[in-house]
Design brief:
This protein starts with a helix and ends with a strand. It is built from four helices and nine strands. The longest helix has 32 residues. The radius of gyration is 27 Å and the shape is elongated. It is of the alpha+beta class. A hairpin with a 2-residue loop joins strand 5 and strand 6.
């Protein structure tokens, strides 16, 4: 009887090592075939000067872009679409890796703001930034600071905190071309 129990114990240990070997082989195969690049730059900053100049010349309103933002802000998205109600978009990654975008358009604010904020709603509250009054909007994905003037609606929106949105709003400037 003692011999049979000892035999079973060795079989269990051998089975465990065989299973471990199969798992190690599977893990090695997955490592080889799943792409990974540890040395890749996570986000490349975009130079948006040409698009900004183009938008400033073409848009029927003063196109805004930030000046004097602190270190760590990276422009990631830029576009101007004349055919879509002169829509200007300039997106950034903030120093704390949150998304912040400046959107402007001559489109009707009631449709434009919920579209670019991914369904945010007006809270009825306001915030004064650099002497200008902005409406506070809150949403399931993006919050926003919104103001309408000179025939266009400006929306500073994103996943960032209201403090970061205000930092962007306060840095917005318009250059005459």
């Amino acid at each position: 009887m003692v011999g049979v129990a000892g035999m079973r114990g060795r079989q269990t240990v051998r089975g465990m090592f065989q299973s471990l070997g199969v798992i190690m082989v599977a893990a090695g195969v997955m490592y080889l075939f799943i792409p990974h690049d540890d040395g890749a730059e996570p986000v490349k900053a975009k130079d948006y000067r040409v698009e900004l100049l183009t938008a400033q010349r073409a848009a029927p309103y003063p196109v805004l872009a930030p000046e004097g933002l602190g270190e760590g802000w990276k422009a990631t998205v830029v576009s101007y679409k004349r055919e879509k109600a002169d829509a200007w978009q300039l997106g950034f990654l903030s120093p704390d890796t949150q998304y912040v975008a400046v959107n402007q358009s001559t489109a009707e604010p009631g449709k434009f703001v919920p579209e670019v904020t991914l369904k945010a709603k007006d809270t009825g509250k306001t915030e004064t930034v650099a002497g200008r009054v902005w409406q506070r909007w809150e949403g399931p994905k993006y919050d926003a600071l919104v103001r309408t003037e000179n025939g266009a609606t400006t929306v500073v929106t994103g996943t960032a905190s209201f403090e970061r949105l205000a930092e962007m709003a306060g840095a917005l400037q318009s250059k005459k071309v």
